[in-house]
Structures are given as structure tokens and as C-alpha cells.
Amino acid sequence: MITLITRIKFLLMANTEGVLPPFIGHLFRAAFLDLIKSQNITLAKKLHDTSNIRPYCVGALFSKDLRRKRITGAIEIKEGTTFTMPMSFFDQELVNLLINIFFSDKPLRVQLNDVFFSLVNIQINRCTYQELVEAAKKVTRFGFSFVTPTQFSLIGVKFPLIFPEPRLLFSNLANLWNKYAPETKVDVDQLHSFVSNNVYARDYDLVTREVNLGKGIPFVGCTGRCSYVVRNSEDPYALWLDVLGNFGEYSNVGIKRTAGLGVINYSRMQYSRNKG
């Protein structure tokens, strides 16, 4: 059985007017879990309560219609406003349940704070883990854009790590990959050693951004861009940088990735043409 990575883009249209906070990833995650709960309470509890790596994540909001308040950044919603929220899924049982919900005859409504939306369309794209492996290049230089605030953690470190240091990035992505990739696994320790000795940040344009998730202390992370150089691009682990970079566009990276934080875009800037 082929294991798939599934990206679903939800097109929502507002049925009422209202105001939403500048960041809504956590609200959309809550609405998604409520939708699952209405169909399968056991699965919803498993998705919400698990301490393991969760098999989904929320992407970044996209819309040409949204207007933000100048000072606060709050989103002004008018009736008929539309926007797209993508989600990635790494569990086929979950995807099958969602498809059954979407293609039922019952109209679907989503509530974000006090604003109600109708789900008017979905777009489904899939890829396999093997496709990401087969398309990989031995990169000599690559970059990430951090679309939503990104933060990392380390055992024993009691403060947020908000600089996208390559060892933090790729250790996190490798653990996500190994959780769901069916066959081709990466040796996390070997990858960490390779990255520590060969990959460094070359230039960056980053800022810190705080978002309120409704739980007291605001979440802080970096946004912007950072490019990296690979010293020994002929090492086989240089391929894994490319594999995991592309995978990260589906998985997000860092803390609270399921709530739409740590959304990244990856770019392969230079690579070795030596296939050996």
C-alpha cells in the first residue's frame, strides 16, 4: 500500500460579519477538531489528546479579500468574504473520514470565534514520500521562508529558541519524517552530525513576531527568510537536506506546528550535478 501525504485546501465564505484576530491557525484547528468530533468522537479525542506527533497540521491563510485593521492587524470579515486555509494530513484513515464528510449531502459550516463560514470548495493534492526522495538533489545552497512565527525547543532549555539554526530545523523535520514515512528512514543522529559540521546560515532577513493563541503568554517566533550553505554537498546526507526541505512545506516545523505555526517555504538555490 502506497502511503500518501495529502494537502487539502479549504475554501471558506463568510455568512456573517465580524472581526478575527491577526492569526487564526489555532481557531481553524479547533474548528477542524470539532468537525471530526461530530463524526467520530474517538478519533477526535485521539487527535486532540495524543502526546505523539500529530498526523496533521494547518497551513497559512490566503485571501485577496481580507482587510486588516491598521494598528492591531485584526481581520475584518464582511459577509461574502472568502479565504483559503490549507491543511496537510499524514494518516489515510483521517483523510478518508474527511472525504466522506465533505461529499455528504449535509452543508458544512465552520465557526471561527463569532463568525460563521460555509465550506464552498475543497482542493485535494497528494504526493508520496518516495517521490520526494527520488526528486532530491545534493544541495550546495538552499533557503527557507518562515511564513508564520517559528519557534524551536530543546530538552533542558527553558526559553524559546527563535533563530532557525540548521541543526534545530533538520532534527525536527527528520523526526516528523521518520514518524510517517513508510520505508525510507533517515538516521537522525548521523544527519545531526552532518548538519553540525557542514551547514550554516549564510544570510538572513528575520524578525520576531508575537501571536496571541488565547492562552496567556503570547507565542513568539521568527518570520522572514534565511539561506544556508552546505560545505560538503557530495555527502549522501546532502540529499536529505533537499528531501526534508520539500517535506517541510507539508509538515510545518517547530513548536505548535499543528496550529499553523512554523509554516515554511523551501527553495533549492544551488545543487551539485554529480549524481554519484
Explain how this protein is built:
The protein has 276 residues and is of the alpha+beta class. It has two domains: 4-128, Alpha-Beta Plaits (2-Layer Sandwich), CATH 3.30.70; 135-272, Alpha-Beta Plaits. The protein has seven helices and twelve strands. The chain has helices at residues 25-39, 41-49, 92-102, 129-134, 166-180, 188-198, 237-251; strands spanning 4-14, 18-20, 56-58, 67-68, 75-77, 82-89, 109-112, 115-128, 138-150, 199-211, 219-230, 264-272. It has a five-stranded antiparallel beta sheet with strand order 3-6-1-8-7. The chain has a four-stranded antiparallel beta sheet with strand order 10-11-9-12. Strand 10 (199-211) and strand 11 form a beta hairpin. Helix 1 (25-39) packs antiparallel against helix 2 (41-49) and helix 5 runs antiparallel to helix 6. The radius of gyration is 19 Å and the shape is globular. The relative contact order is 0.20. The model has no long low-confidence stretch (mean pLDDT 90).
What is the terminal separation in angstroms? 30 Å
Number of domains: 2
In terms of quaternary structure, the protein is: single chain
Low-confidence spans: none
Which CATH class of the largest domain is shown? Answer: Alpha Beta
Q: How many β-strand stretches?
A: 12
Question: How do the strands line up in the largest sheet?
Answer: 3-6-1-8-7
Describe the global form.
Answer: globular
- SSE class: alpha+beta
Q: What CATH architecture of the largest domain would you give?
A: 2-Layer Sandwich
Largest β sheet strand count, sense and barrel closure: 5 strands, antiparallel
Instruction: Tell me the Rg in angstroms.
Output: 19 Å
Summed over residues and divided by their number, the pLDDT gives a mean of 90
Strand content: 25-35%
Q: Output the number of helix runs.
A: 7
Helix content: 25-40%
Briefly note the CATH topology name of the largest domain. Alpha-Beta Plaits
Order of helices and strands: EEHHEEEEHEEHEHHEEHE
